[in-house]
Write a structure and sequence with these properties.
The complex is a heterodimer of chains A (408) and B (371).
Chain A: H1 7-23, H2 42-58, H3 76-86, H4 97-110, H5 113-125, E1 130-133, E2 149-153, E3 156-167, E4 174-180, E5 191-197, E6 203-208, E7 217-228, H6 239-254, H7 262-271, E8 273-274, E9 277-278, H8 283-312, H9 323-341, H10 356-368, H11 375-386
Parallel strand pairs in A: 1-4
Antiparallel strand pairs in A: 2-3, 3-7, 4-5, 6-7, 8-9
Helix pairs in contact in A: 1-3, 4-5, 4-6, 7-8, 7-9, 8-9, 9-10
Chain B: H1 7-23, H2 25-34, H3 41-50, H4 68-80, H5 87-101, H6 104-116, E1 121-124, E2 140-142, E3 145-154, E4 161-168, E5 171-178, E6 184-189, E7 198-211, H7 217-253, E8 255-256, E9 259-260, H8 265-293, H9 299-324, H10 336-349, H11 353-367
Parallel strand pairs in B: 1-4
Antiparallel strand pairs in B: 2-3, 3-7, 4-5, 5-7, 6-7, 8-9
Classes of the chains: A alpha+beta (408), B alpha+beta (371).
Chain lengths: 408, 371
């Protein structure tokens, strides 16, 4: 056991580091603030585009992609090393992750060679932004229950319906889309997958105001939107299979909940008093912080085990499946703790104070426990895919989609 | 980056697993529970023969001279199959103390006998119903003689020697005592796990030899506890994995309301929670194993982190395994209770969960360790 890179890994890390140091600024306590994470703000879009282009020109944009699409054919472990190093720098985030993390792999697997040549390089370069159009008002955790309709019309499909929770739809150029082409088939069999130009006539994007007050995602309406059959990904009726590829990538992409952790709770507890004693001297506080520290350390070491497997060239085990469940719940608990530590004034927000991180954590965590698979769905996945437990008895099995009870 | 055991270590683990399965350690454990014994001599003799008691003992003292990592993989298997032997007392506590703090002469006279099985050791700390502390140790060492009573001493009946924590003037010292002396009285104390033995041990002016610096007894004890915490954590994750496996098998086989109970979300979420706790514990134990085997400065923090996570995981998995089995889980006939009881004695044997959470926070305060 050791925590050192192999000589090749060390060399690669040094290369990443050299380039990053020449082109970006290391994070400091000040630059690592919650404010930098807001999306939908013009200057962030510009900053993100600039950074993406810089990376692309130097070959760092999508390093695991083949050369012809702008990558360098990096190994999985090199990809992690790059991400680790990049995360130490203060660079714009929140614009390209979904497109590159979810649309990219699907296009890579299902698009024609000409389409890959046309769409992948601009995606990597940051010239074109992609979004993902899966969830619907009546299809959240049960995403295969989606109702948006596609009807074939010669060389084209006509799409009608509504998507929801679409991050970045308001600034995206293209989107990947699952729709129902035949409601008389069983639920999972009647779905087909496309990519769509977000500037197509009939697409209307309406921002959703989140409980944080910000708007990073949208409702997207489709009114007689025409999509050429050439933009179909996979066979007619294979939409679910293609979507699963994307969802697996999403689960990897969402991963760790960013924000305050055991260390910040520990520092805060040293600053606040209760009944004349420092909070850090209170037993209940000490026990909670110890447990959060163990969870944070457990997640970090779980990641290192995954990396160890990749470094050996092995396929990692299923251990990373615990990441989001643990980190999002911990974030919510620490957010709560932070505000409680200020007692009667814990609700007061001050943009200039570090304390706001706890309030942002508390609000953000409520969404993180849902995004990219709710706690409940992720636990089902661990139970079924890792532990091999049987599926829940279902009320929709064997029925044509149109006959499935919908409660409306 | 390599936070994993080597192929050789994994092979050793596989062999240990095969051996304990062939011996049917779990069945032996049940037999011990049904008898008035507190360990199994036959299984212990075979373990000594395999050389496991000498894994960490240097070759110059006839041991195998291997690292803590080899000991960790063995510990995981002993924990998985609940082997009823004095391994934790003799190897994780007594032998570690001797290797770490013994004088050349003490090592020469005792270590080879630990390898051969002629010496079995234990560690005696507790005296009252409060957590031991350097200010409440009353067993006293004076002019080379030890007096007073220790309680909840593991494996004292089968052990030939003990390291005893004793008050020595104004400080605390560790000393080695021959338990076969006429002036030592050992009485079994009833405990929650019928497959383990805990005893009161009274010393009546018994010859005792100081081990390690005589004024550093308490800090040396803390170091021994850090070593043991990592090794115990591997027994705990072994037991937690066995409990989760049992619950998983049962949830697939047991039908209720016309379907396997494992198809109900309430059961899936329960088992997923067990998997999450176990995964965190396993990863932290790997980190503890690294810190222990490389004698890293982070050891106190890493050991406490492994200990807290592994204690929580084994307690959760063994208790929810009973719950998954319903009424059957509460019977003597099913194995669930053996894991439940072992999870609790493994936790208390080195000090409770709250005590280790406190140690963890103290280590963070002192070392200023950051994640």
């Amino acid at each position: 056991m050791d925590f050192n890179d192999t000589p090749q890994e060390a060399e690669f890390r040094a290369k990443c580091r050299t380039w990053l140091e020449a082109n970006a600024e290391l994070k400091t306590k000040k630059t690592n603030s919650a404010k930098n994470m807001n999306v939908g703000n013009k200057s962030l879009l510009e900053a993100a585009a600039e950074w993406q282009k810089k990376k692309y020109d130097a070959g760092w944009a999508m390093i695991h992609w083949p050369k012809e699409f702008g990558g360098i054919g990096a190994t999985p472990i090199e990809r992690i090393i790059w991400a680790q190093e990049e995360s130490k720098f203060n660079v714009p985030k929140g614009v390209y992750e979904i497109g590159l993390g979810m649309a990219g792999p699907v296009m890579m697997e299902y698009a024609t060679d000409e389409q890959k040549e046309r769409y992948l390089p601009p995606m990597a370069e940051g010239k074109e932004i992609w979004c993902q159009l899966f969830s619907e008002p009546s299809a959240g955790s049960d995403v295969a229950g989606l109702r948006s309709k596609a009807v074939q019309d010669g060389e084209n499909w006509i799409v009608n319906g509504q998507k929801v929770w679409t991050s970045g739809a308001h600034f995206s150029d293209y989107g990947i889309l699952v729709v129902r082409h035949d409601p008389s088939l069983e639920k999972h069999k009647g779905l087909t997958f496309f990519f769509v130009d977000m500037k197509s006539p009939g697409i209307e994007v309406k921002p959703i105001k989140q409980l944080t007050g910000g708007s990073s995602f949208n409702e997207v309406y489709f009114n007689d939107v025409v999509i050429p059959d050439s933009q179909r990904l996979g066979e007619i009726g294979d939409g679910w299979k293609v979507a699963i590829t994307t969802l697996m990538n999403e689960r990897l992409a969402v991963g760790d909940a960013d924000g305050v952790d055991a260390n910040e709770a520990f520092e805060l507890a040293k600053k606040h008093d209760k009944d004349g004693e420092q909070l850090i001297d209170n037993n209940a506080v000490r026990e909670s912080i110890a447990d959060w520290y163990c969870e944070a350390s457990g997640l970090k070491n779980t990641k290192l085990r995954t990396m160890s497997a990749l470094s050996r060239g092995d396929t990692p085990g299923p251990e990373a499946s615990i990441t989001k469940i643990v980190s999002a719940n911990k974030l919510q608990a620490i957010g709560n703790f932070g505000m409680d530590s200020s007692d009667m004034s814990g609700m007061l927000m001050d943009e200039e104070s570090d304390f706001i991180k706890f309030q942002m954590a508390w609000m953000g965590a409520a969404g993180l426990r849902i995004a990219g698979g709710t706690d409940e769905i992720l636990k089902n996945i661990i139970a079924e895919r890792v532990l091999g437990l049987p599926q829940e008895a279902r009320a929709d099995k064997g029925l044509a989609f149109k006959d499935i009870p919908s409660g409306s | 980056m390599n936070l994993d055991f080597s192929d050789d270590q994994k092979l050793l683990q596989e062999e240990a697993k095969k051996f304990l399965t062939k011996e049917d350690a779990l069945k032996i454990n049940r037999a011990v529970m049904d008898s008035d014994k507190t360990f199994d001599q036959g299984l212990w003799d075979k373990i000594v023969e395999l050389g496991w008691t000498g894994i960490r003992i240097p070759e110059e003292y006839q041991g195998l001279g291997l690292s803590h990592l080899e000991l960790c993989v063995i510990a995981e298997e002993l924990g998985r199959q609940l082997a009823p032997v004095p391994f934790s007392s003799s190897v994780y506590l007594f032998t570690e103390a001797l290797i770490e703090f013994g004088s050349e002469q003490q090592k020469n006279s005792i270590l080879p006998k630990l390898v051969s099985g002629d010496v079995i050791g234990t560690l005696a700390i507790a005296e009252t119903n409060s957590a031991p502390h350097k200010d409440n140790i009353l067993v006293e060492l004076k002019d080379g003689k030890l007096s007073g009573t220790k309680i909840a001493v593991p494996d004292a009946e089968v052990a030939t020697h003990a390291v005893v924590v004793a008050k020595n003037g104004d400080s605390v010292s560790l000393c080695v005592v021959d338990l076969n002396s006429n002036d030592v009285e050992i009485n079994v104390q009833r405990n929650i796990d019928e497959s383990r033995g805990y005893y009161s041990v009274s010393f009546n002016d018994v010859d005792a030899e100081i081990i390690g610096d005589e004024d550093s007894g308490w800090s040396n004890l803390e170091k021994i506890m850090d070593h043991a915490a990592v090794l115990f954590s591997f027994e705990q994750i072994g037991g937690a994995q066995a409990s989760l496996d049992m619950a998983n098998t049962y949830a697939k086989e047991r039908y209720a309301f016309g379907r396997p109970i494992g198809s109900f979300q309430s059961m899936k979420h329960k088992l997923a929670d067990m998997y999450v706790a176990l995964t965190l514990a396993k990863s932290n134990s790997f980190y503890g194993a690294w810190a222990l085997s490389s004698n890293a400065a982070e050891l106190p923090t890493a050991a406490a982190t492994a200990r807290v996570s592994a204690t929580k995981a084994f307690q959760l998995c063994s208790q929810e395994n009973i719950q998954t089995h319903g009424g059957n889980g509460f019977t003597w006939e099913y194995d669930c209770h053996m894991f439940y009881k072992r999870s609790k004695v493994l936790s208390l044997n080195l000090g409770s969960l709250p005590s280790w959470r406190e140690k963890l926070i103290k280590s963070l305060e002192q070392a200023n360790v950051k994640l």
